[in-house]
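Worked example 2:
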Amino acid sequence: SSDLLEEHLRSRLRGQDHVLPRLAALFARGELGLTRRDRPRGAFLAVGPTGTGKTESILLTADYLFGPGHVCRFDLSEFQRDDAVEQLLGSGASGQGAIARAATIPSPRIWLFDELEKANPRVFDLFIQALEPGRLTLASGEMVSFTDDYVAFTCNLGSAEAVRMARSNAASIEQAVLRRVAETIRPEILGRIPEKLVFARLAPEVQREIATLHL
């Protein structure tokens, strides 16, 4: 249930209690089938400063819901060149790309695309197709469906705003961060991502608590 997932995340993440109910609710809706069949079970963007738990929350959720090994993870800083689409989709009938290799993981999966803002502009067209109608055609002609999966993006846009506005209230910081995201990421993509989660900058006392837990 949503409550159990939220409790699980709260016990392992610090400083982000404001986003965990929304994240848990998104996955609860997906698992109950309360989403359109021409889209992934759920899609969201986790945005905020580095090291605040964006990726960790996704990995923890995947392990809790599906067990180990159900995350298809991509670092989009590795897909900045002009051949990024070929890297992902393949380069012909025999040239397998990164999407095909990741699709060997059985559904349900979480497709995790880290550092969205760093991807080559041509890659954004692929994300639009993955989000709606929920499938990609590879260079080999094979189709990969995302409709039984979740698609998650992370990005660090708005980090400077979050740091600069450290003394402001959470709502003002969230608005400023999302405004920065909207200035950079294409609206066709943002319009297909129903949930945008703004992770907060960690206060020094929270950082100390995390360090103590790790030690």
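Residues 85 and 123 are 6 Å apart (CA to CA). The two ends are 31 Å apart (CA to CA).
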